[in-house]
Each structure stands twice: as structure tokens, then as C-alpha cells.
Amino acid sequence: MTQRSKKTRVSPFTMTDLLDFEAQMARDTLADPEVLSTRDRPIAPSPDKARKIETLHTWLLSIRAIAADPWPGSKIQRTYDLMSFIALAFGIISGMGLIEGLLRYDGSEPVNVIPFLAVYALLQIILLLNYVFKTFVYRLFKRLPGGALLYFLREGALRWIESRGSLLSNRDKERPMIKAFARRLSQLHRPLLEKYAWKLVQIFGIACHGASLLTFLCLIFFNDYTFGWRTTLHVEADFLHTVVTILAAPFHWLGGDTAPSFEVIRASQFTRFGKSFMASGSDLGARSTAAWWPFLALVILTYGLIPRFLIWVSLTFSIKHTLSTLLFNDFRSEALWQRLTREQVEWIPGGVLESAPTIQDQTLFNPSLQKTLGDCLVLRWRDFPASDSAIESYLVKNFGLKPIASLKSSGLVREQDALKNMLERHRQLPLVVAADPWELPGEAIEKIRRLVREQGSPTSLILFAPIDSKADALTLAGDRTAWRHALKAFRDPHLGLLEEAR
Amino acid sequence: MIPSFAVVGRTNKGKSSLVATLIENDRIAVAATPRTTTYAQGFTFKINDKPLFTVFDTPGFEEAPAILEWLKSVPVPAHERRARVLEFYRTFHAGEVYRFECELLKPILDGASILYVADASHPYRSNFESEFEILQWTGQPSIALLNQIGEGHYEEEWKRALEQYFRKVLPFNAHTSWARDRIGLLEELKFLSDTMREPLALAIAAMRRQLNNRLRDSALVIADLVQDSLSFEIKLDPDSQWRSEEELSRAFFDGLRALETKCRQHLASIFGFHDLNFDDSTQVPADAEQDLFSKDTWEILGLSRKELLAIGTASGAIAGGTVDAMVGGASFMVGTGIGGLIGSLSSAYLAFSDPEIAGFKLGRKKRTMGPYKNPNFPWVLVDRQITFVNTLLQRTHAQREAIHVSEGNRQGSTSHLRAKDKTRLGVIFQSLRWNVRLRSLNESLASELTRLLLNLLTPKPSSSRQNQSDFRPELS
Ligand SMILES: Nc1nc2c(ncn2[C@@H]2O[C@H](COP(=O)(O)OP(=O)(O)O)[C@@H](O)[C@H]2O)c(=O)[nH]1
Ligand SMILES: [Mg+2]
């Protein structure tokens, strides 16, 4: 299945998309994962039929539709287009300038074809070889020279991007993202960036050679040139002929006068001293000096224009190919992919979560009846295990309180009568509730409190004694913070911890 | 209707804590006072939006004796007990009286199984029996869990009492139950009723996968941190507010600390800790134990100087080779040699220096500071995050106190790596530093880290298992 889909697949990613994608990846490095997953959730396709590239592209489109931040893709693309245009213009200018320089002709001396060949044949061949080696052989050995220009173009582009935080965000503090963006580009898409850089170079080359060729033809057409060759080195005419024949090999099939013959070459050798052609006097010389031009034009075409054009075309295709075979297997993309397709395992609350209650301190326990401490009532709350006498000695010893009546209660309805009775008989006496330390008071105690307030007095004290009964003797329970908090919830100024009423 | 459980028990015995731990949600209110939870809050476990089962957190029992009194106020034969409880619910659910108990009973009367939570740190008292009885009257399948809130140990008496009423009694500590225990609990719940078996089996499998996925996600986050930290530098404005070099370097290190904090928040959120309280070590740099740049940290974590030297040479050479490739081989293998040399020399110099004072140069012309060059830095960084992840694995979502990441006296995970793996990691670090491109550098770092993190799930050999905190939750 993957095989077939691979063949028929047309990658939806353009360079603009890719840049935007990487920008979003960089932005997401700073984002809270929870936010990301809620954001991406609705975008997620059903995982079974999903295909990675398409899914990521769909995701990008959806994100682009909702995110307010600037997107660098089109901006960088536009900058690149501008650069291409500059390269084009610069190429045209330099092509024209170059050819004019090489064809400088004041009528007294013929135009020397040696520098012409050096620039339009030799240099081009070296550059081409370099390119070929750089791109093909490099893959095999990875250790070949060249690419310095490329390096500067690429690094320059990355520096430029890095210096432009506004490409990614309007907010200052998120500037670090731009670094992440540049880093992703450099680490993940270096070959692609290099291809773009090369393409820029080729545009310059095409423009330069195209302009050279046209200018050359115009100059030839409007002027009357004499070509000759001369060099400080001792070069024989037959050597130059060999070179010319080799150079002409690619367009030899055109036939005719595409390459100057040996006679022409010999005849057009020029000596400075005599200010004359070697073969001066012969009729051939005068005629043949002009015969160089078709050869020179074809050299520009063959070694300049056509290869540049071919490379440009191949780069264009190669970029397309690279874009269509992107794997997105770096770890951020992988995380995104996981987020989009991984099963969602989660616990969904059925409603709004309750928040922990804040403890109000408005009604503070205010035991204003300290003087009346002396006698008291005791309520043995729930299965508080100590005997009445043990409780009594504990209260007398620690608090100077003497219980005069005592009851057991678990908060049952049927216990209420006895409690009412006791309260009616001793209206003003404080009620001490002896309890296990873990029996924090709740609604059951609230019912008792109301009973006290109705049957007893609205201001009599209700005092809680959380008591540890583990040891032989009763002791005050260890940590009473929870008790304090729990008691505050009753909002009764006459209800509190026994120890605090002392 | 999907199966459900109701977590019930006396107030303040850790019901909400248990639910928070089980469903890994640190936003559930847990407090030492009664009535923190006031209504039955359901949490539904879903895989890809498909609900499997629900867990209810309930307000606790407070007036069980009185309710049982009400239930028994007329003679009720066993076959009508459930109906009697339902009658209780109908009578009281709209009013204020017994409001919380009605909330508690609602999911059970709707068919939820019962998870009774008791606190075994205090002695058993017979008044709890009224709760058991009420639950028994509902006729729902039930299981009891023994939590441990305080210091005391009364498991035996609690167990004997609970076994009279519940099918099974299990210990489950809301504060020390990690992934393995959670899954163990769900395994037990499978046997509560037939309808539970399938959804719980699915859920357990999904939870196991989720744990692995979380570790993978953590690896990505840590890889990001390592990348960012190794290339971290600060630029100075011409009219910069930093006057002394000391101040400047403090700003630099604080920047690195901030990166780490950010990463840790990220990690915490992967593990479902959203309200995690980090004790802010940046505020008190003197409180050094938890600080990234404390000497203690650097003594324990990372690699030894000898190892750093060895790895520095090896990784320098390999990464140096890549530099050759990058500058197009103009250096013709010189890079390899020089890389090795630089690698070993710089590690030699830096390995012996203090983490706070050495390891980076202040570029005077460019007015930038960083990146931090200490060779041990990435190792310490990785170790610290792995320790942090381990701490997260050992923390439950019921714990609310600040997280304390203690390195203890243990060495970090990286020092236990095999030599080959160390070299590989060293090469990755070196390449990140020199910004050379290895084939899929990202993945290799992330996958190395994934491997380190997944190691956390496999129990370590007995040697380092002396104490509780060394325990690692294991999953098959
Ligand atoms: N040490 C410890 N404390 C616990 C444990 N479980 C609960 N607690 C504490 O007990 C108190 C009550 O917990 P909570 O879950 O709100 O009880 P609930 O009322 O039954 O929901 C809180 O202060 C918790 O921190 C535990 O396993 N260990
Ligand atoms: Mg609760």
C-alpha cells in the first residue's frame, strides 16, 4: 500500500509551506504541551487512514488559518525572488560589461581571443567540473573542495533569518524562536537551502552568459572586428588548433565554419612588435581574422549558457523532488505526528472541578467566658474509647475542668432526648466533646451544635478535645491544624478547641 | 452505560487523593479539612473519545450511624434493602439534611461498584460499621482499600473488620502508588464484575502505552533543552545594564537555569502535573543542592574527569571529521586530527575547572557571552533531567507539597552507560557544540535519550536498591 501511494503521491509542500512549517515547529518549542494538544486535537485526522505528509500539510493549513503570528514563508520567498531578480540584473550587467571589456577594439590591434577563451571556456569548464564534483562526487566521498560560495550564501541566509525575529513573532520576548527556526533550517534542510543558493548562482550565470552572447552578436553585427591571438607564452599555432578543435567538439556536428581552421589560426596569430599578423600579406589573414566569431559565439552558448540553463532546470526539478520526498522524521515533526495520530488516553471530568475551600478567618473562636471554667459537661463522641473517669482526670489535670455529667453520642436521633435533658439542666456549662483525633467534626456535630444553641444557651461554649488514647494516659492529639480549620467552618465564636479556651 | 466505580469512605480518609493518583490529575482538590469534595465528581476514562469507564470521587460519609438508624427504623428484609436505600435517597436528596451522603449514594444507586477507602493509620472503631452496612445494603460489588495517612499501623485490625463486609481488601497508598500500583489496582478491579473486565483490560494496555509514550515525549523535550543550552549565549546591548563581569555571568547562568526550568515544566506537564510547585532554587542560589550549577551537583552527576578526557578525544576526532566534510574537505583530514586535539585539550582544561567560573569566553568584540564550554555540562544537564523524570515517576498526583528533586548520592544515569554509548553521546554533544550536521542528529540524540529514559522503567540491579527512593516502577 505504501509502495503505491508513494508513486502516486504529489507532495503538497511548497518551499513557502516548508518554511512556515518549520516556523511553527520553532514556535511550538516554547509552547505548553497541553495547549498544543488542545489546539491540534480538532485538526487530528483519524489515525488509520492518515498519511504523514498530507496530514502534516493539512495541519499546517489549519494552523495558518488560525494563528495570528506572522508567517515567514512568503516573506522569505519574496526576498529570494528579489535576490533572484538582483542576480538576474547583476548578471546581465556583468555579462555585457565583460564582453565589452573583452572585445575592446580601437581598430589598431585585433581582439585577442585568448582571454576570451579563458573566461568563456576554461573558467566555465572549471566551474562546471566543480559543480559536478560538488554535487555528485561529493555524495560519494564528501571530501572535495568547493562550496565556499555556497557556504557563505547559506550561512548568510541563516544569519539574515536569525537577525529577523519579526519574521516569526510580533512579541519581543519570543525572539529566541527565530534561532530555533534558523537552526532547524540549517540542520534539517541544508541540502535544500544549498540547492536554492545554487539556483541563485545559476540565474546569475544564465543572465551573464545570455547577455554576453547577445551583446557579442550585436557588437559583431554593428562593428567590424578583427580577431587575433597572442600570448606571452610560447604557444604554437597547432597547439591552439588542438585546443580549439577540442572546444569545438560539442558543436562540431553543426558543420560549416563553426571552428576556425588551422590556417585561420595560424594566420590570426598577432605579434606586438610588428603590429602585424604573423601571416601578414597573405590574403587569408585579413579575411580569416573575422572568421573566429561563430566559434566564439558557440563557445559562450556551449560552455556558458546551455550548461547553466541545464543546471537551473535540474535544480528546479531537484528542489521539487526534495520537497516531495521530505520525510519529516526529525524529532519535533515526529512529536507533532504523534500528537496528531497517537491514541488519546485521557480522563475527562464530568463537570467543573471543585477547588479547595479557602478557610475564612472572620469568625474567630472567642472564649469570653473563661471565668466560668470549672464545671463542664462531657460528650464522648463516637466510639471514643476512654472511660468517664479517665476523661475526668485528664480534664481536671490539664484544664481544671470538672465534668458533672457525661453522655455518649454517635449523632443518632434517638440519643437526642438524653442530650436535651442534660443541656436543659445545665444551661450555661461548657460542653466538652472528647473525640478521637481523626474524627474531624462535620455535619453530625453541626446537628449537636444546633441542639446546644436551641436547648442550652446561644453563648455557652462548645469545646473540642481531640485526645490520643493510645498510651496509658490520655494525651492531647498531636497535630491540630486540621481541627482548627474544620472548626472554623462552623462560624460560631463560642465553639473551638478546648486548649484554646484555657 | 459504561461501568463505573465510586470511591467512598469517611471524609478525610484520602478519597480525593486516591482519585487524583489513579487518574493522574493534580487539580483535584485535596485538603486536610472535611467537606473539600461536596458532590460526586465523575472522571471518564477515554481512548480516542471512546469512553471505557468512570470513576467517581464522592463527598465522604459523615452521618452514617444516623442514616443507618433511619434505614433500620422499619424492619427491612434482605431483598428489600436496596429499595430501602433508594427510598432514603428519594426522601433526602433534594434537601439539606444528608445532602452529602445522598451525593455519595447517587452513583452507587446508578450502578457504580464500590471502592471503599479507609485510613489504616489509626485504630479501627466500630462506628465505621454503619458505613459498611449502608454500602452493603446497596448490593453493589465492592472492594476496600487501605490508605496510610498518618504514622500508625493498624492494617491488621482494619483488614479483619473490612473483610467481613468487602470482597477484597488491598493496600493502596495515595502518596506512594506509582504507575505499577495504579495498574495493579485496575487489574484487581477487573474481577469486581464481568462488565469491568474488557474495558479495564483495554484501559490497562492503553496506560502502559501511554507511559512509554510519555518517556519518549520527555526525550524530545530534553533533547531540545540540550540543544538550546549548548548553543545558549547572551548578547549585550551597547548600553547594557550589566556592569561587572560577575553580574554578566550571573545573568548568563540564570539564562541557562531558566531554560532548564522551562524544560522541567514541560516534562511535568507531560506527566500530567499541571500545578506542580517547584521550589524556586533560582531565588536562593546558596541553597545549592537543587541548583544546576552547584558544585555538589557536578560532583555527583555527569562523568568523571578521566572519562570526559577519553570521550573528549574520541568525539572531537569524529566530529572533527565532520568538520572536514563541512568545509568541503579543504582541511583534508586535518580536521580529524585537530578535532581530536581540540577535543582532548579543551576537555583537559575545562574538566578540571569550577562549573561557575570557567568554561566560556567573553567575546570582547562581539559582546556576547557563551556558549558554555564545560565538557561535563551536557552530561550533567541530561542526568539532571533524567533524575527529574524519575522523580515525576515516583510522585503521585495527590501530593501537593513542592517537588524536591534530590540527586541523593547516586551517580547520574549517564555514568552507568556502556563506553560505546558514552562515546556516541559524546559525539552528539560535540557536534551540537560545533554546529556540525550529522545525519539526522536530532533523532539520534532523542533516541539515545529515549533509551536512557526507558531504562528508568526497568528495575536496577540490586546494588543500588538500598532505600525506598531507589525504587523504580516497573512495567512489562
Ligand atoms: N501522607 C499521606 N497523606 C494523605 C494520603 N492520602 C490523603 N492524605 C491526606 O489526607 C487529607 C485528606 O485527603 P483527601 O483526599 O482530601 O480526603 P477525602 O476527604 O477523603 O477526599 C489530605 O490532607 C491529604 O493530603 C496518603 O496516602 N498519605
Ligand atoms: Mg475529597
Please give a structural write-up.
The complex is a heterodimer of chains A (502) and B (476). Chain A is an alpha/beta fold and 502 residues long. Chain A has two domains: 15-340, no CATH class; 369-501, Rossmann fold. Helices cover 55% and strands 9% of the residues of chain A. In chain A, the strands form three sheets. In chain A, strands 6, 7, 8, 9, 10 and 11 form a six-stranded mixed beta sheet that branches. The longest helix of chain A has 33 residues, at 190-222. Residues 1-8 and 141-146 of chain A have low confidence and may be disordered. Chain B is an alpha/beta fold and 476 residues long. Chain B has two domains: 4-175, P-loop containing nucleotide triphosphate hydrolases (Rossmann fold, 3-Layer(aba) Sandwich); 213-457, no CATH class. Chain B has helices at 15-23, 64-71, 81-92, 99-109, 129-138, 155-163, 179-189, 194-230, 245-270, 295-300, 305-326, 334-351, 377-393, 419-434, 441-454; strands at 4-8, 41-47, 50-57, 113-119, 142-147, 169-171, 234-235, 362-363, 368-369. In chain B, strand 8 and strand 9 form a beta hairpin. The model of chain B is unreliable at 281-288, 320-335, 351-366 and 461-476 (pLDDT under 50). Chains A and B meet through helix 6, helix 8, helix 14, strand 5 and helix 17 of A and strand 2, strand 3, helix 2, helix 8 and helix 9 of B. Strand 5 of chain A pairs antiparallel with strand 2 (41-47) of chain B.
